[in-house]
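Q: what sequence does this backbone want?
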């Protein structure tokens, strides 16, 4: 029986200016927007849905301000995760929910919660690679590097992994997700025009090809005041294990991107390209060493 799974990605512009609204108002507005879009996804038959990086606010790492430390929530005990568990159960939909996580006071992560179609919290992935090298991307001010490795979650519909934004520039974690059995890897992101455009349609299809799985990658849209670090250019898409783009969003508007992923293709591709059989982990030890 064909395993054809309808999956979705939500790309969305921030609603309220960080210069004018309170943190509570910002989060409330973005939660409300996404609740509606999740409902729209359910009407279209989406079974697995991923939201964008730090979905319920702006990309606040555009500045370094301790104000944003108050934007954190616990996972899974915080209100946003609880709300998403209710929606997942209501719609029989797997949800990947990226938010700013508090482990304890002063220890914060860029995290995605994974919720199964029955509303059960399955676990979380914490962003591993934290950038602090480009104007407007001051993430080390806010996030510790992830410490949970590369989990793969067995959901009601597929085995899924998560990689977050800057992680996509590092192929090692993508390979580990494949070794752990991922069939679909979701990559929620926040990236602007001018420095990543030329990589956007190369890296994720390359990851899909190298590892023989599907990839769904998201970028938010619009410009975010008061920082205006650039245009978040959307273009969220799904690609298959051959690297072919199956569905893609626009550059400049809120959108639900829907793709029907034939998971049987994974076996077909891996029979043709025997990358897992022909690996040589016995001679790859140098890759885990620092440059000397």
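A:
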């Amino acid at each position: 029986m064909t395993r054809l799974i309808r999956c979705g990605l939500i790309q969305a512009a921030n609603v309220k200016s960080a210069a004018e609204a309170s943190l509570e108002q910002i989060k409330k507005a973005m939660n409300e927007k996404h609740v509606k879009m999740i409902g729209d996804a359910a009407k279209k038959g989406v079974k697995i849905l991923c939201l964008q990086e730090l979905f319920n606010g702006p990309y606040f790492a555009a500045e370094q301000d301790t104000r944003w430390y108050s934007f954190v929530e616990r996972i899974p005990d915080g209100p946003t995760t609880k709300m998403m568990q209710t929606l997942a159960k209501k719609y029989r939909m797997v949800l990947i929910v990226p938010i700013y996580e508090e482990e304890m006071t002063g220890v914060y992560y860029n995290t995605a919660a994974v919720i199964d179609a029955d509303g059960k919290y399955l676990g979380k992935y914490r962003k591993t690679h934290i950038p602090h090298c480009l104007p407007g991307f001051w993430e080390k001010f806010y996030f510790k590097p992830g410490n949970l490795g590369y989990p793969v979650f067995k959901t009601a519909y597929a085995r899924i992994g998560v990689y977050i934004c800057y992680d996509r520039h590092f192929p090692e974690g993508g390979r580990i997700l494949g070794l752990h059995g991922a069939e679909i890897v979701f990559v929620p992101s926040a990236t602007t025009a001018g420095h990543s455009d030329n990589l956007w349609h190369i890296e994720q299809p390359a990851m899909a090809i190298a590892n023989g799985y599907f990839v769904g990658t998201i970028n938010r849209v619009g410009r975010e005041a008061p920082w205006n670090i650039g245009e978040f250019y959307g273009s969220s898409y799904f690609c298959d294990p051959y690297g072919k783009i199956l569905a893609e969003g626009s550059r400049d508007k809120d959108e639900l991107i829907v793709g029907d992923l034939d998971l049987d293709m994974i076996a077909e591709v891996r029979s043709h390209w025997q990358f897992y059989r022909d690996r040589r982990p016995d001679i790859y030890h140098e890759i885990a060493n620092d440059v000397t």
